[in-house]
Amino acid sequence: MASNRTFTMIKPDAVANGHIGGILNMIAEGGFKIISLKLTQLTVADAQAFYAVHAARPFYGELVEFMSRGPIVAAILEKDNAVDDFRTLIGATNPADAAEGTIRKKYAASIGENAVHGSDSDENAAIEGAFHFAGREQF
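Request: output the structure for the sequence above.
Response:
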């Protein structure tokens, strides 16, 4: 059975480019309820821990540097079939391949600076949400 929660981050590129409001609007229009929300900044150690699954990949250092370079918006979202529906809303990692009407098609600049993160499974959504939000911050 699919969970009804997922996790997202509006990445430093989209925050710096002033897209927080537009992305949150697309999330709301997509039928998602915001359960938790905060503007924060990952330290290098935070980004290393969050992306530890990618530590052996060649892009890991660049990813950590990018994700810790500026503020992010972290959020837990709720909707039936949240993970899959949110992955559809954000679109393909490469904005050139993303469908029209998706967040990445509208706001992402490149594969590396792709505006948003979305959990890829129910299990990772729970782990990622707990990474950013204490239990008392989840409503």
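The chain has a mean pLDDT of 96.
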